[in-house]
Amino acid sequence: MLGYSQIHTEIDTMEAERINLIGSTLIDLSARAVDLRRYL
Fold first, then answer.
1. Exposure pattern of 27-37 as b/e (b: 16+ CB <10 Å)?
2. pTM for the predicted model, two decimal places
């Protein structure tokens, strides 16, 4: 059985991974927007 602190740590890790994914997606979208502006 998992203890509270271990579960809390796993949730924090999942949240950090999700935040990193969102940040990467925003960077990618920004780069695409710059490319589209140059194209148009």
1. eeeeeeeeeee
2. 0.69
| Residue 36, amino acid | L
| Residues 1-40: tens digit of each pLDDT | 557 677 778 888 999 999 999 999 999 999 999 999 998 8
Tell me the C-alpha distance between 5 and 27, whole Å: 33
Helices (H), the chain: 4-39
> d(Cα 11, Cα 3) in Å, to the nearest integer?
13
Q: Which residues contact 10 (CB under 8 A, 6 or more apart)?
A: 2
